[in-house]
Specification:
The chain is built from nine helices and no strands. The protein is mostly helical and 214 residues long.
């Protein structure tokens, strides 16, 4: 199937999803579920709370599809929704920690007013534990940029569109985030599969594309 045929097929899928056709909506969700899930779980480091963010993001996508105007790529629009859902969950944790989750409660009680309460929840992550622990210590704004770039596999312009900031700000956050991440990781080799150019591989198979962004 050539690129033109794929574009036509995707446009038809989007048209049917916007009209409310259930099968088309489910297809859109399936196409983007893995990345939305990975994005939320790398930003919200408590699995239970991250799952809430995933569900909220998917619901927001379903409700918002009829109003999607196509001015941005569908994937960029969906990742913006997922990012906002994850950020909302982090803020909810800061306001009202769950008494049933002692790790969340302890992390929130000991955090400063400007700190990210998810930063101490590393023990909940089973995979890439060294990298997850280092990522949890990276300041929130930098971590969001890293996750969008290396988990969602967005280019600089797409990350800028999701976050609503200039591309230059994205470049700065990525550079400072990678520097902070490297500092927390310590001497190599702690991360298997790290890119030759020194870029972090935050989610294994989901980030295989070389960085050819301008």
């Amino acid at each position: 199937m050539n690129v033109g045929a794929v574009d036509v097929e995707q446009a038809d899928l989007l048209r049917r999803a916007r009209s409310g056709e259930r099968a088309a909506v489910e297809s859109v969700l399936r196409l983007h579920y893995d990345t939305v899930h990975a994005l939320c779980h790398r930003m919200v480091l408590s699995p239970e709370c991250a799952d809430d963010a995933v569900q909220n993001a998917l619901l927001a996508v379903v409700r918002g599809l009829p109003r999607f105007d196509g001015r941005s790529k569908l994937s960029t629009w969906i990742y913006r929704i997922a990012t906002n859902a994850a950020i909302d969950e982090i803020r909810r944790l800061q306001r009202a920690p769950r008494a049933t989750d002692p790790v969340v409660l302890a992390a929130t009680q000991t955090a400063g007013p400007e700190s990210d309460p998810t930063a101490d929840l590393v023990e909940h992550l089973d995979d890439f534990s060294a990298l997850a622990g280092a990522l949890a210590k990276v300041p929130h704004d930098f971590r969001v940029a890293l996750v969008l770039r290396y988990v969602a596999d967005l280019d600089y312009a797409e990350v800028a569109a999701v976050l609503g900031v200039p591309v230059g700000t994205v470049r700065s956050r990525l550079a400072r985030g990678k520097e902070a991440l490297a500092g927390h990781l310590g001497p190599p080799p702690l991360v298997t599969g790290q890119r030759a150019a020194g870029e972090p591989n935050l989610d294994g198979p989901t980030s295989e594309r070389a960085d050819n962004s301008p």
